[in-house]
TrEMBL record:
This is Putative disease resistance protein RGA4 isoform X2. Residues 322-523 form the Disease resistance R13L4/SHOC-2-like LRR domain. Keywords: ATP-binding, Nucleotide-binding, Plant defense, Repeat. PANTHER family: DISEASE RESISTANCE PROTEIN RGA3, PLANT BROAD-SPECTRUM MILDEW RESISTANCE PROTEIN RPW8. GO terms for biological process: defense response; response to other organism. The keyword Cell membrane does not apply. It holds the Pfam family LRR_14. Residues 145-234, 240-290 form the NB-ARC domain.
Amino acid sequence: MVGINDQLWKLNGTVTRIKAVIQDAEEQAQKQKQNHQIEDWLKKLREAVYDAEDLLDDFSTQVLRKQLMPGKRVSREVRLFFSRSNQFVYGSRMGHRVKALRERLDGIEIDSKKFNFVRGEERASLTTEREQTTSSEPEITVGRESDKAAVKIFLMNSNYEHNVSVISVVGMGGLGKTTLAQHVFNDEQVKAHFGVRLWVSVSGGLDVRKIIKGAVGTGDSDDQLESLKEKLERKIEKKKLPRDAVGSKIVVTTRSHVIAKFTSTIEPHVLKGLSVDESWELFRRKAFPQGQESGHVDERIRKEIVGRCGGVPLVVKAIARRLRVLVLSDFGMKEVSPLIEKIKHLKYLDLSNNEMDALSNSVTSLVNLQVLKLNGCINLKELPRDISKLISLRHLDVGCTLDDDLCVDLEYMPRGIGKLTSLQTLSCFVVAEKESPKSEMIGGLDELGRLNELRGRLEIKVMGYEDGSCISEFEGANLIDKEYLQQLRVEGYGGMRFPSWVSHLSNLVSIVLEDCGRLKHIPPLDGIPFA
C-alpha cells in the first residue's frame, strides 16, 4: 500500500492546486459569459475534483477502519479485507482509479492552456460518426422516449419539400439536448436509413475550415477551403446512398430560441424539464447503481430531494453523485429507508422531528457521516446497534431537556458508542436501567471515557439504579478529561456523594443537577454557576 500512499499524496496535491484554478476560471467565465467552452471546461474540472475527493474519502475511511479494529477482536470479514492478498487487490483497484483520475486531470490541464483565461480563445471540437465506445458507459436517459420518437419521425419522414430539412432541439443548458441527439444519432434505425452520418460540435466561434476538416477526418496540414470541400465531396461520393433518398436532414441543438427558429425548416422541438417521478428515477439510477436500490421512499421525500432540481437532468445527476447533505426533518417518517446506506458520501443527515421508534442499522454504512441530527424524535427508543461504524461522526444530536427537543423515549446508548473518538457533540447520554432485557447491547457510562473531544453541552440522564451503584460508573466516565465541556446537566444521579472530578472541569461554566434525591455531598464548585 506504500505506492498507493505516494500516488494519493500526489493526487491530493493536484486537487489542492486545481481548486485555485477553479476560482480563477469562474471569474473569467463571468467576464466571458458567451464562451460556453469555458463553462464546459469548468464542468469537467469540477467532476474530476469531486471524483478525486470521493476517492480520497474512500481511502481515508479504509485506513481509519483498520486503525479502529483491535487485534484480537477483528471479525473474520475485516481480517479477510486486510489480508495480504486482499490488500493487493484493493491496492491494484485503487491504483487504477488514481491513474485514471490523474490522466483526466492532466487532460483538463492541457485543455486549460487553450484558454489562458484571458482571451477566451474560441475553438471547435469536431468529430465524425461519434459512436458509443466501450471505454465509457452510455449516458443514462430518463423520460426522453417521446422526444426521441419525435426527432426520429422527422428524420425518417420523406414528405418534406426542402432538399435539406432542419429541426432544432432547443432548451436551457443541462436539459440533455446533446444526449438526446447522441441517442438519435446512434439509433439502429437511423443508421440503416442514412448512408452518411456526420456529427459536428461547434461551440462559440464558427470556423468553416475546421468544421469541414473535422468532418472529413483529415490529419494533414492542408487548410485550403476548396481543397477541403473536394475531400468532403469525395467522401460522400464513396457512400452508397439509397436510390429513394429525398434529401438530407440536420438536427441542431441550441439554447437559443432565436437560433432555433432561424435554422429550422419545421417547428423547433422544445425540450422540457423532467417530472418529479422522472427526476427521482434518474436520481435513483445514478445514486444507487447496479440494481442496489431497495425499499420505498415516500413521495414527499422524493420531492424534497429532486423537487428543487427544476427537472434539469444535469442537476439531478450532479446531486445524485455528490449528495453530501440530506435534510429530512419534520416528514412524519416512521422508518428510514434501507437504501440510504447507498449514499456513501453523505456527511450531514437531519432526521429531526420524525416519528420512528428505531433508527435502521443501515445508517451505520454511512462511514463518511459527520453530523446526525435526531432531536425531537420523541418516539425513538434506541440508536443503531452498530453505531460504532460511524467512524467519521462528529456531532450526534438527540436533543436535550433545556431545548425541549429531547428524544424522551430513548432507553439507552448502544455498546460501542465510545469508539466514536471524533465526537465533539453528544447532546445527551442515557444510562439504562440495570435490569434491561437488552443488557448485552447497552453501553454504560464508561463509554464516555474515550470521548475527550466532547465540547459545549452534555446531558447525562440516568434511567434507574439501585442504591448507589452508579457512583463507580460516573467515575468510569472519566469526565475529568473533558476539558472542552462547558455545560453539564445530570438527571437521576443515585449516589450520596458526587464524584470529585466535577471540581476540576476548568472550562465548565454551568452545572445542573436534577432529580438527585439521595445526593448529600457535592465537591467544591468554585467559579461554576450552580442551578
